[in-house]
Request: fold
Amino acid sequence: MFGFFEKKFDPTRDLGDLQGRVVVVTGANGGIGYSTAKFLAFAGATVFLGARTEEKGRRAVESLTRELSELGGKDGNLRDGGQARPGTVEWFWCDIATPEKARRSAEGLLERVEGKEGRLDVLVNNAANHFGTFQFTQTLLPLLIKTSEEPGSDVRIVSLSSDVHRQGLGASSIINFKTLDEFKKMYENETVPWMARYGVSKLAVIMSSKALQRRLTASNSKIICITLHPGLVYTTNHLRFPFARVVGFIAWLFFKPQDEGAYNSCFAAASPVVRQEEEKYKGAYLMPVGRITDPARVALNEDVQDDLWETTERYLKDHA
Reply:
């Protein structure tokens, strides 16, 4: 179902050595983000793990530290003859529920990173709604660009979307992002508005990533922007749905475990294959694992991408 390459890909073996690299993962105190942070840290990166509260952040760091120690003892021979050591994990306050919180989250992170590591190699927007993610990314972009100009750098911006973006409005070729009112009208009359809103947000994540890639490439930047679908993954997020017990049981039976759900994110964030074939992966949308696939047709429309970009910038001037 998920392809031969997914079965072969192993983030404990296939990410290379990330020593000296600085990685940010939002929404990483649990779920796919937690596993993404774990594998990138195991490969040697300094990982900043985003969490909404200190309690969640500290608990995640403590748990990850234990898991990294166990993973190193069990599988350390898979990397550099067992000699390479895992990186470190720190938590930072990160809330992208609103653009204003997203901006403050990014600014607080910048104060820490610029004063110490002085670089940012990979941003994984794991908690990826459109407006918050856009603001968070734009706030960190100057440091990402600065890092990308250093010799031997490999800077990437990875944003999680979902194949749900293809459903409903995503299947339409008529989508209007020219104004915020038009943005809202697209889902207000849907049978299940919250699901339609989720789909539109995931579509917008893809389109804004593609628009950002075009702008970066036009400025001769080497940064690679990738969006992806993690696959059908069982996480505790299913407990938030209506009929949570039923949904959770079905997900437990048929969906992938959480760690495997992070494989596509890890591939996009740190696989050497991506940089080796950078022109192929710039602006790409990936299905698990590492399989380049066209998103919904409307997501490829550069005029609509630009409308979305401009409307988002206007909105953020008043709300961030």
Summary: The chain has one domain: 22-74+82-318. The CA atoms of residues 62 and 89 lie 9 Å apart. The first helix runs from residue 4 to 8. Residues 1-6 have pLDDT under 50 and may be disordered.
